[in-house]
């Protein structure tokens, strides 16, 4: 105590005093390293270590939250799975950390039914129903039973065939996918045309119609693939009536050869709207005076593809021409064929554009469905209800997958379905745009050279049309399934390539995967498709019905899996009808699909994925994809700075060296840009579930094997270093180095403060700009 009465108590404690060490001299880098080393030695250990403040984690793209390109409003959870260190020498953040939290409580999700549901689109019992009892001739019924092994009709065929045989009124056929709508309208048409040559008792008439007797039916389909399929089905039916001929006219084929076939004669014409319009205008030999039937198959899809004016013109020209009561050979058509032109509209869904198409083409139409109760109800009320139903035996599920884990989850899902030999033969993966289809095909196909064939077995001649669209797959194979064939299909491919690829997928004896756009979602009947994967959700809920309808056809079982992002997309299942698909976490798929090491393509070694746990295998697989995109053909690491560098050559002359380009890296960047643009084109009613402002571009880039999201998505964020120039009357923009906020692959650079704002403005403009990218 001092003189003033104050008591000073200094408690030093038991811990030793820490001396402050200062370093002088030498380079400043060495002083900083030495100072850091001393600080680490003085840090507390044991129980005291738990009292230190937790360091804020960085995001997946290596920057803090303020560097995000689009504002994130979804909460982020802690790591779902532990992070494992890679021994590759490259730094890779975990794909399981900083992921959005799923809004769904998976514990409260209903369990799958133990007993399979009764198929709703299977043929009826042959003992109760047969084609002969529906009014078809004995010749056609016997041909179906003996040659096509079809002894009983489906429900829609049972309700449609008698109506189209006895009545001459227009009809609207509506039934779920895979229920046999194609034969429902083809069989009555063939039966009535055949009646011109054959009596009811099967005896031939004096006058027999042939290919030059006239064109009696025109069938319109939205895609070339569907035209081909209808043609194949019709040709099988016409084998029992060999004097009748059908032909096709569609885009991508030679118009000269099509004119020659029309000039040679055909009784039934299958066409796409655009090509038929061209022939009606320019092919004088095409006479529609004897046409009695006009079939509009997949009418809603034709309206979506912009064929409204073509259909108006086709319907107007056919109705404008006088209906001939007899053909040029004097064969009387009335009394056997319809006395008026009959229009048949087919669709699995009912949308506003279908109703508009019905107003254009139908007159006093009869609504025919698979259920008699629905037909009677519609007849009483005078209204047609909307039906968005999938086959009852189809099992649907939705995987809630964070953006960063989408790619490895897709690989794990496909691996899991092919783990058991013969359990799954074919799978279809739907992706939003053609660029993304090309990228995923190149990423998942094998890079190994084909094995040399033995001298005893002669080499098979490869099909030149499928050289770039069919290849063995890597990553998806296993010990049970050593070979999986990979196919790709979209609308930007030439028509011969599309036809050959689809034929290869249909005829494949090995397990096969088709990566495709919505071009394959309508009407295609590929045998043995066991699972449909919607990697990107459809642009409208009715399109979802058509996509999953590629499986579970004609009473067969099937499975459909939809990928959704955590957050607002989880509510999308409420639009998919009843019962709603079951939401499932993605971890179970990863655990099952990555239970064994993944077979990596050479020159990579499977040691990268030969880890102890499925989480480490998933991280190693993601790192492998990223390394593939960063590698150059000569094995060096790619230069991702997207900048030209200068070096001095001989004589001190300055030379500009452009960075090496990896084709797979360029494909990944273009696929990412097209995917983001496609994401902004969902129908207006569903944009609340697919909100572009909720999309984390850094996380989504991971699903394309990219370390950073590339720039140039819409041109609004990249820095423009040149003024617009006029070329051919159009304004073109030349962009220089991308903005650091979007394409900072070197990890440094200032952030553009207005990037997020300009991105929002650009996305608003992109909402109605689906033509700016290739949807295939």
UniProtKB/TrEMBL annotation:
Q: Which family does it belong to?
A: Belongs to the DEAD box helicase family.
Q: What is its EC number?
A: 3.6.4.13
Query: Principal place where this protein is found?
Result: nucleus
Basic and acidic residues: which segments have biased composition? 57-68, 652-661
User: What's the protein here called?
Assistant: ATP-dependent RNA helicase
Q: Which source organism?
A: Immersiella caudata
Compartments where located: Nucleus, Nucleolus
Segments of this protein annotated with the region Disordered: 19-121, 448-469, 632-661, 706-729
Q: Which Pfam families match?
A: CTE_SPB4 (PF13959), DEAD (PF00270), Helicase_C (PF00271)
